[in-house]
Design goal:
Length: 300
């Protein structure tokens, strides 16, 4: 069977990112603290999300939307609309907070707190969408083996967070033995295990020339464009099924609030230019496009 590409969309707004919330050095402790202080316009997400939904409809693509659960509270009807258009609903955390320290990779919260928060996030998304949520993507892709064990325990069937590359590592283990092909991780770790278990890891694609370069999408898509991403997607599809991802805010034409210099540089390339890059990938007929849950079914 031809290897497939899951089209995935990470639904989060500008203030969910580490400069503002969810990381040890963020400006606000978390999203609830942000909303206690922030009395200005916050929604830069709804408009580009509708544009993405229309684009997917135009290309007849059903995708997997990894949604930060608090979006169901602060953006009335958005999760419902994504579900209504027939897309798979998956979980991208309760408030998009990092669960492990980006530097030390040690847990930032006790495992039991991660468990309770993720159960809550899953049920918020299930209630809003009326669909079962079985997929998880770690906020900012910071992922650890102990998180996978908990995800399996609370009913998740797959995770798609491991970004295999040799430039940076957001996982709590070495990425050396991990390919971009879906695999069953060993208990307590992210490395491939031998036995089949209840949770599948769908890692991110890479392009290799001496080193492994990340080509899943996101900032790499904005900075380096569709041609670069497609090279890695095509190489990864030779190995097995893989994913492509982007954010609705990547195509926002507006400038986000609290624009520090670093943030300005991070968002230097976005908007219509990125929308065109996404279109180039989605319209490529070489890709057999699908959802993550279909990749899971395929792996079983
Ligand atoms: Zn995210």
């Amino acid at each position: 069977m031809k290897n497939k590409l899951a089209i995935t969309v990470d639904v989060e707004d500008w203030y969910h990112l580490p400069p503002f919330t969810g990381a040890p050095n963020s400006k606000f402790k978390d999203v609830p603290s942000f909303f206690k202080i922030w009395k200005y316009r916050y929604d830069y997400l709804t408009k580009p999300t509708f544009r993405i939904l229309d684009l997917l409809q135009q290309y007849r693509i059903t995708g997997t939307f990894f949604i930060v659960a608090d979006v169901a509270y602060y953006y009335s009807g958005l999760v419902e609309e994504i579900a209504r258009r027939g897309h798979e609903i998956a979980c991208h955390g309760l408030h998009h907070a990092c669960k492990i320290d980006p530097k030390t990779k040690k847990p930032l919260i006790p495992p039991d707190e991660f468990k309770q928060r993720t159960i809550l996030a899953k049920s918020i998304l299930e209630q809003a969408s009326g669909k079962k949520v079985i997929g998880y993507r770690a906020p900012n892709a910071y992922i650890a083996g102990w998180m996978i064990d908990i995800l399996e325990e609370i009913g998740f069937r797959y995770d798609s967070s491991v970004c295999v590359n040799s430039i940076y590592n957001k996982a709590d283990c070495s990425l050396k033995g991990i390919s971009s092909k879906p695999y069953y991780p060993k208990s307590g770790g992210l490395e491939p295990g031998n036995s089949k278990r209840g949770i599948l890891e769908i890692p991110w694609p890479y392009f290799s020339v001496l080193l492994k370069f990340p080509t899943a999408g996101g900032p790499a898509l904005r900075m380096l464009g569709a041609r670069y991403i497609k090279k890695g997607l095509k190489e990864s599809l030779m190995r097995g099924d893989t994913i492509f991802y982007f954010h609705p805010i990547d195509i926002s034409e507006e400038s986000f609030p609290l624009n520090s210099l670093t943030n300005k540089i991070f968002w230097m390339i976005k908007g219509n230019r990125v929308f065109a890059e996404i279109k180039e990938i989605l319209s490529d007929s070489e890709f057999a496009k699908t959802t993550c849950s279909e990749l899971l079914e395929k792996a079983l």
